[in-house]
Amino acid sequence: MKVLLLLVVAVLAVAHARRYSAEERYQPAESRRQLAVPAAALYRARAADDDDDDDNDGDSGDASDWQQSPTTEEPCPDACKLVYDPVCVRDDDGVYRKFSNNCFLQKCRCDTNFRYKIVSMRKCQGNDLPECPRPSRSYGRARPEEDLDVADSDSSASD
Fold first, then answer.
1. Where is the composition biased (Acidic residues) (predicted)?
2. CA-to-CA distance for 154 and 143, rounded, in angstroms?
3. Does pTM surpass 0.70?
């Protein structure tokens, strides 16, 4: 009886291994379903960007192309899996950054209020910048030039 039970478990394990890839086997079924929609949206964004191969770094496109605040569909992740599925983005300063995967991109967006537009991976070839920019001292302020006022007053006070 034990041998029969062991044989059934072995057959089920082999069938499961053939059905799912290595990455899928180590993810709960719920995450596989949740990742299906963002992955499809990411593919459409990459395909659309491959079609328009403009190299200007200005603010091309309308404001709806830029993504900033978290949505209910994509909550802020606490941690990301170490799966390499690179994503290239252009921030609102025109700097290209490459993220290891979409989760790290979402985490950066949540942690620093990072604004970006997903672009073709060709734009990030040879890019060695850190994935997520550090938040500036002006994060959350209405006017970034307040930093200059503070720096000027600090230097004049030390003279």
1. 49-62
2. 18
3. no
